[in-house]
Amino acid sequence: MAVFLDRWGNVLFDTNKEIAFNNNMTKIENGFLEQTVAVSDTNRRIDNLVLNSGGDSPNEVVDARTSLNGQIYETLEARLNGDSSAISNSLADTNERLENVENSNASLEQKLEELYGEATQNMFIYVSKARGSDEAGNGSFDNPYQTIQKAANSIPKIVSGIDIEIICEPDNYDEDVIIEAIYGAKYVTVRGSNSEVVDALTTDTGFYCKSILFSSISGQCVVKGLTQSSNITTSENIIYFLRVGYGSVSNCRFATSLKSTEKRTIYYNQSDGGVAHNYFKDQNVILRSEFNSCPIFYASNVTAGTSNVGVSVYMSDLRLSDSAPAIKATTPQKTEDGGQII
Fold first, then answer.
1. Cβ 287 vs Cβ 266: under 8 Å
2. pTM here?
3. What does the pLDDT profile of the chain (342 residues) look like in tens digits?
4. How many whole angstroms separate alpha carbon 69 and alpha carbon 76?
5. CB 144, CB 171: distance < 8 Å
């Protein structure tokens, strides 16, 4: 509101000037009062728009058209639409993050299952190259795995004092199998399904494999009913026991010549064990014991042909049965660096 004051006409001060001055002061006071009332009304109106508007008011203020990120829209509707779009995008991003969390949780649960499992009962895992599947199989007799390695990978890493058997239908498994880091098992066995009825001393068992490594298993590791594959492994050993409680090889047949290689048929490293009722022919080293191992080579083993080395020890011990027949090898026994054959 404009306030128009009276001007003095001349410099002489008289009663009229006093009256005019007082009138001017009254006008100023009234003007300030009116402005104060107007400001108060405006503030109440803004509060009503921002805090108490029922949505019918045609008035908009800048604050109502300003988004949280500071963008000013031309209308409140545009701002609300913008906020809705931003919220929608945020929700989509949140849903994606939640989906990622769910996938991570599922992966974690799978890893925990692989690690701990629920293995309190003996496990029998079936393998069939002809009718099995590593994708759709579950290791049961009716729905076996196709490879020995898949069966080995399905074993939980921590179990509770149980026996574990991988039972393989006779076939040629062209694999270098690794079974490692299983805690709490009493036995971990790989065997042919016909191992109880076939005699490896007289015939091929029909269950062929290139090599098997057992590593870091505190229980007894067993290979039974295996015939050495005609496809020579790239590994240094056919059967390898590395830091296991006890390694056992029985009713197996090793008749693919390794004489021109550096490979060892059965190798013990920091492990005890026993080798019984097996057939060996034309191998490079039939049995090697190293680094505080102490396996037993039983008299029930049969050697044929002429292997390069029979039994060999390095910084380790090896026991031969008292009635063991002579091992057919160019060097039947070999000791190195404190190794002893008893």
1. yes
2. 0.68
3. 555 555 555 555 556 666 766 777 677 767 666 666 555 655 555 555 555 555 555 554 556 666 666 677 777 677 677 767 777 777 677 777 767 767 776 666 655 555 555 557 899 999 999 999 999 999 999 999 999 999 999 999 999 899 999 999 999 999 999 999 999 999 999 999 999 999 999 999 999 999 999 999 999 999 999 999 999 999 999 999 999 999 999 999 999 999 999 999 999 999 999 999 999 999 999 999 999 999 999 999 999 999 999 999 999 999 998 776 789 999 999 999 989 998
4. 15
5. no
For residue 225, is it left (φ>0), alpha (ψ between -120 and 50) or beta?
Answer: left
Q: Which residues of 177-206 are buried (b: 16+ CB within 10 A; e: fewer)?
A: bbbeebebbebbbbbbbebeebebeeeebb
Give the span between the Cα atoms of 14 and 11, in whole angstroms. 9
| Closest by CA position to 168, among listed 230, 255, 226 | 226
- The residue to which tokens 């001055």 are assigned: 21
CA–CA–CA angle 79, 82, 88 (5° rounding): 140
C-alpha torsion 323→328→334→339, nearest 10: -30
* Structure-token match 């390695």, residue found: 149
